[in-house]
Amino acid sequence: MADFNQILDAGDVDGGVINVVIEIPAGSNNKIEWNRKLGVMQLDRVEPKLFAKPTNYGFIPQTLDEDGDELDALIITDEPLPTGIFMEAKVIGVMKFVDDGEVDDKIVVVPADDRNNGDAINTLADLPAQLIKQIEFHFNHYKDLKKAGTTKVESWGDIEEAKAVIKESQERWKKQ
Question: Rounded to two decimals, what is the model's pTM?
Fold first, then answer.
C-alpha cells in the first residue's frame, strides 16, 4: 500500500476540492485507522454494531488536527466506499467535534464528480436534515457503552469554516 502522506497532499483547499483517503466504509463497525508510522491501514478496534458509521470515514493527507491525527473527513455517498482508496472530494462543511476533551473536527465532503445526483450537493443545507441528525446522534453517543459523555458535536460550520480548519491542519503538518 502506498504511503498516502507521501504521494498525496490535501488538494485544492482554496478551490474546495480536496484529497480524501477512505478508512471506514459507511455501515461498518470496524474502526480502521491509518497508521502513519507504518504506512498501513490498521484495525484499531471493533465497535458495537449499534454504532456502525453513518457515513464513510477517512482523512485528509498532509494534515494534522489538534488531536495529533490527520484531519478526519465524513464522506457522504449513496454507497459505502472501500478502505484504502482515495478520492477528490468537494468540501461542503465541517462538524465541530470534541472527543474526550480534544478537538477532533470532521470535514464533511461529497464526491467532486457525482453524476448520479448531478453534483446537487454543494452545502450542508443540501443534505437531508434527518441525515445531519443521524450523524450528530452517532458522534454524540458512539462511545456511550465505554465512556459515556466523552464526545460532543458542538456545532456545524459552512464551507469557509471548513477550509479554515483544513488550512490550520496543513500548518500543523508542516511544523511537525
Answer: 0.97
